[in-house]
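Sequence only, no structure available. Ideas?
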Amino acid sequence: QVQLVESGGGSVQTGGSLRLSCVASGHTFSRLAMGWFRRTPGKEREFVAAISWSDSRPYYADFVKGRFTISRDNAKNTVYLQMNSLKPEDTAVYYCATPVEGSWDRLASWGQGTQVTVSS
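Reply:
I predicted one. Tokens follow.
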């Protein structure tokens, strides 16, 4: 089982930036697709972004395109989420995850999450 630990959350004002990090262990990181999700009370889990293991191709939810950037550093077993132009509606617990057999419909592993709060 992959262990995932997120960090980098915090409180910012509208328009601010944060960089989230997720360190993975327990698996060959370079062979893992990695993703970021978020959850808020009363809402379903939302896919935010993902990055492939083979060519580091990024995928984004429409609501973060142009604002968030996902990247990975295989030497550090770490995936990042750079979040710019933050909005109050981005307030959530963000967590990284790995997919089941390449599909993001089910998650194989996920971390505890890191809180992001954006104030207006």
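The CA atoms of residues 35 and 87 lie 21 Å apart.
Hope that gets you unstuck.
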